[in-house]
Structure formats: structure tokens, C-alpha cells
Amino acid sequence: MELTLNNGITLPALGLGVFQSPPEETTAAVQTALEVGYRHIDTAAAYGNEREVGEGIRRSGLDRSDVFIETKVWVSDYGYDETLHAWDKAAGKLGVEQLDLFILHQPAPDRFEKTITAYKALETLLKDGRVRAIGVSNFLPHHLERLLAETDVVPAVNQIELHPYFTQRDVQAADAANGILTQAWSPIGGITFYPGWGENRRNVMRDPAIAAVAQAHGKTPAQVMLRWHLQQGRSAIPKSTNPARIAENFDVFDFELAPEQMAAIDALDTGTRSGPDPDVARPERFAMVIPEA
């Protein structure tokens, strides 16, 4: 299943995420995913595993053109020249000459002027053909409004925390109004651990409403949630290094949720995020230096 971005490029709706995947496990996870049928891999400079993602793609034996590679610029590389160089670092580690989707990792509200100039560098990379599409991550409606007012190219994608307990309807609406594809990170429930955030959260994987839908279809809660994303027209990037889970997460194209099942999942939204608040500046984290290729 593919989704068409606002510049005509197509993106496989389901991708493999590698956030918090240890480098030593990432190559095997990527290779496994591509063998299962995934054709979209999402990584980031800040994850520290772009090199291993590139190795996994090479080991798969697939042509470069068959794999959609998405990665992100970290805040310490914001700024025009710095972001152009961030492309050099990412492409060098991944071992490619072109990125399919290159996005800004955070709005970084404490230095938004640099966020704007970083995005202008993405526009240059797009014009030069070094990337096929550009976008953002964790942008809230007011971040998007300012970005759109000061730049020329509408982001193709906004990657945000999105799962049944946290649906960010305001962000989805702002994305839709501007022709931006919403892409879900933590799509199966915000279960990745973020130190200092979301300690009191409930695990949506154990929600009885989702369990009931899963039982009705003979599927797992994770598969039901991924199907929910796909039927609402989103991109989703579940993360796993477990070969069985990687395969399970891709096995979501042979069933369909009924309207009442979709509504039951929609009704689970708590309005509480599990990950960091994009409006809160994190200067120490933002200062993390991304190594050279």
C-alpha cells in the first residue's frame, strides 16, 4: 500500500522504525524487514544507527530504488550550511547518493529562526535532487503556521506521536488542511520508554477495546492498531528488532476494520502524550553532536 505525497512522490504506507534499536541489532532488523516485504525504513541522525540501516539495505540485495529511505536532521545541525552538511553526514553513513525523505526532527521552539533556515536548506536539497521529498517531525499547528509563512515548499510529511491513546486531532487537521501527510511514530501505543516522560501512562497494547477487535479478526492488538492507521490514510512506522514481530507488523493487509470498530478505537484518545512535548525546549539534548560520516 502506497501513499502519494504532495509533490507526487509515493511512499510505502508502512515502514520499519529503528528508534532505540541498538546499532548491533539494526542491520539484521532492516534486512529481515526487507525480506518480509517492507520497502520503507525510517531512521534519524540522532538514533546513531544510520550506518547500520545502510548496511541492512545492502545486505538485502534489493536495488536502491526499491527502498524508500527516510532520515532526520538533528537540532544541533540546524542552520542553512549546517543542514546542508547534515545531508552529507546522513548520505555518507547510509551509503547513498539520494535520500527519499529528509525531515527536521524537532521544531526546537527556543531557536526557531535556525529551524527556518534549516528548512530552507532542505528546500535547496530538494531543488538540487539530493532528496526526493522534505518534511518535519513533531511540529504542532502553530509551528507549521510559522514555517509555512516563511518558506516556499509545503512539507510532504509531519511525523508525530500518534496512537489510540494520543491522536493529536488538531495536528492531523492542520496537516490535512495543508496537504501534509501525517506519519505516526509509536503507532502501536507509545510503549517506547522515554526517561522523564509519561511514567504514569497505560499500555494501549493491553486495552480491552482493542483486544476485542483483535479477537474478532483473529489478529493481534498491534496489527489492529496498524490497520487503524492505514484505514485513516496515515503512514505508520512500527519499531521492532524481533523477527517475528517485524513480520507480524507487516501482516495487516488481509483484513479490514468495520466503521464501528474504527470508532471504538478513536474513542480511546486520552489527550496525554508519552513522548516529549515539542513546545518544551531541551537545550542539553538539542546540543548532542552528530558525528561525521
From TrEMBL:
GO molecular function terms noted in the UniProt entry: oxidoreductase activity, acting on the CH-OH group of donors, NAD or NADP as acceptor
Annotated substrate binding sites: H105
Similarity section: Belongs to the aldo/keto reductase family.
Keyword vocabulary terms for this entry: NADP, Oxidoreductase
Protein name as catalogued: Oxidoreductase
Cross-referenced SUPFAM superfamilies: NAD(P)-linked oxidoreductase
Residue ranges of domain NADP-dependent oxidoreductase in the record: 20-269
Positions of the record's site feature: Lowers pKa of active site Tyr: K72
Active site: Y47
Keyword Glycoprotein: no
